[in-house]
Design goal:
The complex is a heterodimer of chains A (about 450) and B (about 475).
Chain A lengths: L1 H16 L4 E17 L2 E19 L2 E7 L4 H17 L31 H18 L3 E20 L4 E19 L2 E11 L7 H13 L10 E7 L1 H14 L2 H5 L20 E4 L20 E6 L2 E2 L6 H7 L9 E2 L8 E2 L3 E4 L6 H8 L2 E8 L1 H4 L6 E12 L2 E14 H7 E4 L4 E3 L4 E4 L2 E9 L2
Parallel strand pairs in A: 7-14, 13-19
Antiparallel strand pairs in A: 1-2, 1-4, 2-3, 4-5, 5-6, 7-20, 8-9, 8-13, 9-10, 11-12, 14-15, 15-16, 16-20, 17-20, 18-19
Helix pairs in contact in A: 1-2, 3-4
Chain B lengths: L11 H11 L6 E17 L2 E19 L2 E8 L3 H12 L13 E2 L17 H17 L4 E19 L3 E20 L2 E11 L10 H16 L3 E2 L3 E7 L6 H8 L4 H5 L20 E4 L20 E6 L2 E2 L6 H7 L7 E2 L8 E2 L3 E4 L6 H6 L3 E14 L4 E13 L2 E7 L2 E5 H6 L1 E4 L4 E9 L2 E9 L2 E9 L4
Parallel strand pairs in B: 4-6, 8-18, 9-16, 15-22
Antiparallel strand pairs in B: 1-2, 1-5, 2-3, 5-6, 6-7, 9-23, 10-11, 10-15, 11-12, 13-14, 16-17, 17-18, 17-19, 19-23, 20-23, 21-22
Classes of the chains: A alpha+beta (about 450), B alpha+beta (about 475).
């Protein structure tokens, strides 16, 4: 990491020398292994290694960015010059400025699990093979598994700026997933299973494989439900996807630029009392956790919605400055890598649990639909207006209990109406890698439009 | 006409040594893929030029295939030491006897891409002016336009591929893209319109008023939606617009014809080669050579020259889309569909430009024939599960059809269904053919793909709206 810090520091110096008023450099170095399994054999084994530098500069309120992968002196000079050149094209923005140091970041315990380094390639292959085997063994209707994927990665990052921001950290993560194919008579269904953690030891291959088997076989014989408005229970994976969209429209960037359905609603009730959501960039379990955000601001917990009341928007240093009134960055200047500058985004979202066990959620729903998967989220949700209509699969709920499987239908509503319609949250939460990184229970929505037969 | 072939990123001798090194511990096949990519992107938002970014990637990926297993490693940099490191890492997974590759022979006649204006040679200020012009045009389209965001991007991607079968080929690809999103607002109602223009072209693509024209189209779409009511829910006839409407075929059929899904039995089209799956008038292609289109390339990312592949002819499945690995398995030739996001990714079968060929009808005829139905002018995107054939499309601009006329705009609609059923229900294709830009995601890799068609009518499809 010392090497990365040195490169970041050097890049800042070079950028200032190239004409930048202020400069910030982010260096990332990651190594990883990806294993893909098909029919108990290794389909591909990828040794991944990547190292890159991104430089952001400011010249009189104009911001520019450049990245590259050549981290020797000539490469750094080229990246710095590219950023300066980019800034000169931009228009001045009175709020665009280099972030100032925002305090000491605290290390997050367990962010880099030393256990991960002890795993050899063979052990990881065995784990991935076991995941596939578990799916096949769980149910005779599982006829194939398209691909089983295992990935583990160690990433180190360093940040430095001309304002005195500096820091570095290391993190490990790993995950496995598969898509099982189940058949019965003429029907064929797929189901996803996944698990994640900071080391391969955190993954339970049996549970991951079984989940895929259960999800696929549960849908066998599915039919299109009738078009109607009814209560809907979203399982954790689906609730997480929606939580991700809610987090997105609560980013100050969208709010300030008039592209959020929740602009100007701070302090108001925007959801039902059953709904509480926080963003937490320092949660030890959350896979997007880091000691500081992409601008060096120490991470922490930000209450977004508490018992239905909108408590905060998510800020980076730019949106906080633009907000004025003493607003501060909530450490949500998020980087998705060295190829792009930080932008406002959620870190880990935590949807609060409620008192309802799963059976109670179903009982409370009475007659409705239990949604276990959604498709077409990237095209079916309009984050500006908040309206959405997405493809869904799941089970009917009849008389407060799970009934026949259902597929080929849509669920539609809009985010403001949906937040108000949340009737209850389940008692057990799960971490899900959809919608970003989200911990959420199942949610009962009082009413949603079903488009089916 | 023969054109000069593109320059190689590494010479044949070094490429040959690297491939041989990768086979030091055995393997049936080895490949070196070198890439040099540079790009610029710029945006306008709130009438201010921002998010100015430059970037460059330069590196190589080496794969060794042994039986059913692929060993892959990638490195940043294209120096000999970098290539050696990648070759050694890929070979480390094997423990057999050295395999000797064939001598390198350059693939000839690939030709260089013809562009009028190299975008890298155009001053950044002109690109900023283009965005300002788009912003102004969109705002001038109507007083209810509240926000305009436009993004311009250009990228040059040079590649060189060498493999143990002696293939040695290079390609030099320049792409330019402009996207405009407009937000219109009236009394608390907010709607969006989106339009793109992109191609395997130079800066000429967006000049001469072409950029401003798409800005106006995006604005008109957003303004029209201000009068929108809820979309209907249920099964009804659907007319799909030309151009980006072709994403329907891309999802419904294109993905299912990719040979990796087929070989794993994870496609509803597996085992259906030669079978009737669509009405007899339907013809569809994947064509990586369409001049200037978004998904066009000289050779694919395995060095195979791209081509036009008829995938549906007279309603029958006539071909699957292959890369080298899957082609070898089936004992056929690659169709030039081996594509990868970058040197950090393995090639897999991917579409290039996929489209339904133009038909005889006019869009007006298709619309007039619908008593009560839905008109999906364009989509925000779509998704399919090739295994089950279930698909879903988010409609970005849609209208109600009543008595053969377009009556009112609808918000928040989705189309949903199953491939095989929906394909059979296509009962009209118009001649107003157009290809638009898409980004296709598969297996964690995103590649530029062209989608296209004239207006298409589907006798019945499920519309997922809120008016139930």
């Amino acid at each position: 990491m010392a090497d990365l810090e040195r490169i970041a520091g050097r890049a800042v110096e070079v950028a200032l020398g190239a004409g930048a008023g202020d400069a910030e450099a982010f260096v990332e170095d990651s190594t990883g292994l990806e294993v893909r399994i098909f029919e108990q054999q290794v389909e591909s084994l990828t040794e991944a290694g990547e190292r890159g530098l991104g430089v952001r500069v400011w010249i009189d309120g104009r911001a520019g960015y450049a990245y590259g992968t050549d981290l020797a002196e000539p490469g750094i000079a080229e990246i710095a010059a590219g950023a300066v050149e980019a800034a000169r094209v931009a228009d001045p923005d009175q709020f665009a400025a280099a972030p100032d140091p925002a305090g000491e970041a605290r290390a997050i315990e367990g962010l880099a699990d030393p256990e991960a380094a002890k795993w050899k390639t063979e052990g990881k292959v065995e784990l991935a093979v076991a995941v596939e085997r578990a799916a096949r063994a769980a149910d005779e209707h599982v006829v194939a598994v398209e691909t089983t994927v295992f990935v583990d990665e160690r990433a180190a990052a360093a940040l430095a700026s001309s304002r005195g921001v500096s820091g570095a950290y290391e993190a490990t993560h790993c995950y496995a997933y598969l898509s099982a194919i189940a058949e019965q008579a003429d029907d064929r269904q797929t189901g996803l299973g996944f698990g994640m953690g900071r080391s391969p030891a955190a993954l339970d291959p049996e549970a991951i494989g079984r989940e895929a088997a259960e999800r696929s076989t549960a849908l066998l014989g599915a039919a299109k439900p009738a078009s109607r408005s009814c209560p809907v229970v979203l399982d954790e994976t689906v609730a997480a996807s929606f939580a991700g969209f809610i987090g997105g429209v609560l980013c100050a960037d969208a709010v300030q630029r008039g592209r959020s359905p929740f602009a100007g609603r701070l302090g108001e009730a925007i959801g039902s009392p059953a709904l509480t959501i926080a963003d937490h960039g320092a949660d030890p379990v959350g896979l997007n956790s880091a000691p500081f955000d992409g601008e060096g601001v120490p991470t922490g917990r930000t209450a977004l919605i508490e018992a239905g009341e909108l408590r905060a928007y998510l800020h980076d240093s730019y949106t906080a400055r633009r907000q004025g009134d003493g607003a501060r960055s909530t450490a949500n200047g998020t980087r998705s890598g060295y190829r792009s500058p930080p932008s406002v985004a959620t870190s880990n979202l935590i949807v609060a649990t409620g008192a309802h066990g799963f059976a109670e959620l179903l009982a409370e729903a009475g007659d409705g639909i239990y949604v276990t998967d959604v498709a077409g989220l990237h095209s079916g949700v309009n984050p500006v207006s908040g309206t959405f209509s997405v493809g869904a699969t799941g089970r009917a709920i009849a008389g407060g209990e799970l009934a026949e499987p259902a597929d080929e239908f849509t669920i539609a509503s809009d985010l403001p109406a949906m937040l108000t319609a949340v009737r209850a949250a389940g008692a057990a939460a799960r971490w899900v890698p959809f919608g970003g990184s989200v911990s959420t229970p199942a949610l009962l929505i009082g009413e949603m439009a079903i488009g089916g037969a | 006409m023969t054109r000069e072939d593109p320059e190689h990123l590494v010479d044949a001798e070094l490429a040959g040594r690297t491939v041989a090194r990768a086979l030091a511990n055995g393997g049936d096949f080895a490949e070196l893929f070198c890439e040099d990519r540079s790009g610029l992107s710029l945006a306008i938002d709130e009438s201010r030029i921002e998010r100015a970014q430059r970037g460059a990637d330069r590196g190589a990926g080496v794969r060794v295939v042994s039986g059913e297993t692929t060993y892959f490693a990638h490195v940043d940099g294209l120096a000999e030491a970098d290539l050696e490191r990648a070759a050694d890492a890929a070979a480390a997974g094997l423990s057999g006897d050295r395999h000797r590759p064939q001598a390198m022979a350059a693939t000839e006649g690939v030709g260089t891409q013809e562009i009028d204006t190299d975008p890298a040679a155009v001053a950044a200020e002109r690109k900023a002016e283009l965005l300002r012009a788009c912003d102004e045009r969109a705002r001038a389209t109507g007083g209810e336009v509240a926000q305009v965001q436009a993004g311009y991007s250009e990228a040059r991607r040079r590649i060189t591929v060498a493999n143990s079968d002696g293939r040695f080929a290079s390609d030099d690809r320049t792409r330019v893209r402009l996207g405009v999103q407009v937000v219109a607002a009236r009394d608390g109602t907010v709607e969006t319109g989106f339009e793109t223009l992109g191609g395997h072209r130079g800066f000429e693509l967006v000049e001469g008023g072409a950029g401003e024209a798409i800005a106006e189209r995006a604005a008109r779409a957003a303004l029209a939606l201000l009068d929108a009511g809820p979309a209907p829910a249920g099964a009804m006839p659907v007319v799909v617009g030309n151009g980006f409407g072709g994403v329907l075929f891309h999802e419904m059929t294109g993905h299912g014809l990719e040979a990796d899904h087929i070989q794993k039995g994870a496609s509803v089209y597996a085992g259906r080669l030669g079978e009737d799956i669509a009405p007899p008038f339907l013809r569809a292609y994947d064509d990586g050579r369409l001049p200037g289109e978004w998904g066009t390339e000289g050779v694919d990312d395995e060095g195979t020259p791209t081509r036009a592949t008829a995938v549906i002819h007279e309603g029958r499945v006539t071909a699957y889309l292959y890369d080298l690995l899957r082609a070898r398995k089936d004992g056929v030739e690659s169709t030039g569909n081996g594509r990868r996001q970058s040197f950090r990714h393995l090639p897999i079968p991917r579409m290039t430009n996929t489209f339904i060929a133009p038909g005889e009808a006019t869009p007006e005829e298709l619309i007039e024939s619908v008593k009560r139905g839905f008109y999906a002018v364009s989509f925000a995107g779509g998704q399919v599960d090739p295994t089950t054939g279930d698909f879903v499309f988010g409609v970005s601009e849609g209208y109600l059809l009543e008595g053969g006329e377009v009556t009112r705009p609808c918000r928040g609609a989705t189309l949903i269904g199953n491939c095989l059923g929906a394909l059979r229900k296509i009962d009209g294709v118009a001649g107003d053919f157009e290809v638009k830009t898409g980004f296709c995601g598969k297996g964690g890799q995103s590649v530029p793909t062209g989608v296209g068609q004239g207006h298409v009518r589907i006798a019945e499809m499920t519309v997922g709206g809120t008016a139930v």
